[in-house]
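Quick one: C-alpha cells for this chain, please?
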Amino acid sequence: MTALDLSALRRAPKVLLHDHLDGGLRPETVLELARDCGYDGLPADTAPALATWFREAADSGSLERYLETFAHTVAVMQTPTGLERVARECAEDLADDGVVYAEVRFAPEQHLEEGLTLDQVVEQVLLGFRAGESAAETRGQRVRVGVLLTAMRHAARSREIAELAVRFRDRGVVGFDIAGAEAGNPPSRHLDAFEYMRNNNAHFTIHAGEAFGLPSIHEAIAFCGTDRLGHGVRITDDITIGDDGVPVLGSLANYVRDKRIPLELCPSSNVQTGAVDVLENHPFGLLAQLRFRVTVNTDNRLMSDTTMSREMLRLVETFGYGWTDLERYTINAMKSAFIPFDQRLQLIDEVIKPGFAVLVG
C-alpha cells in the first residue's frame, strides 16, 4: 500500500464540487491583472506577501470579513482576457493537483463593471476552462470542469442568473447556486429562480448551514428543493449525543441522510469563517461516521492556501482516514455531480476506482 502523504494524495483521482473561481486565483496573476487593468487597491505588491495577506485576512473567524477579501480578486476579473486567464489557470491548477472532475462556481453579475454582458462573461470563463483542459491534456493530465452560475443572495438577479444557467447548460454550465452572507438573506427569497430551474429540469445547489443554522438548511430543502447543500455543517445542530454516547438524529438530519442529500463540506474554510472553531471539532468526522453523503472541497484555494490534496491530508491527520475512506468520499462526490448518470458512472469505474486501486496496492 502506498504511504498516505501529500505526494501520493496528489496522484489520487479527486472530485471537487465546491470551489469558487474568484477564490482560487494565483497571487502572481492577481498582481499582473491588477497592473493590466489599472487597479491600485491591492494590499501587497509581491506574490508571497499578497498570498499571506489573503490567508491572514480570511482567518478572522467571520464569514462577513472572509467575504471582503473577494473585492480584490473580483476587481481584476472584469475583462475578457482576465476572465479567460483566471479560468484557464484554475483548470490547470486543478489538473496539477490530480482533480479529474470539478464544478467551479462564480457570480456573473459581479463581472460587469467594464461593460461586459452576462453572456459574454460566461462565454469567456467557459473559453478559459476549455483552454485549461486542453493544456492539461497536452501534459498527460485529465480534468473536466463544469460551471455553476451563482447568484448573490443579497441581490435581486437570481431569476436572471438561473435563466443564464439554463441557456448555457449545453455549453459547459452544469447548474445554479446562490451565495453570500446567509444571515438576513434566506434562500426562500429566491424561490422564483429555483422554480425556474426545476421547471427546466436543471440542477442547483444552495449555500446553507455555513454561518447560519437549521432554518437556512430547512428552507433550502423544504421550500427551494435544493439538490445539494453548500457546506451544510450546521446540520449537526439537529444531532445530539445521548448519555450513552450514541448520536440521535432529529427529523431534519434524518431527512438529509435518508435522501442522500450531498454535503459540500470545506474543512479549512469552515474553520476560517467560524462555522467550526478548530478542525478537530469539524463535524466531518461525525457525519462520515453516520454515513451522511459527505464530500471534501476547497471552497477558496487562495484564501485558505489549500488544494484538494491538502484538504484530504488534513482530514487524514485529524481523523485517521485511510485510502478506502478517501475513495468513498471521492465516489460520494462523483455520484453527486451535476452531469449525466452515465458520465458519472464512467468516471467512477474507469478513472476513480482504478486510480485508488493503484495506490491501495
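The chain has a mean pLDDT of 95.
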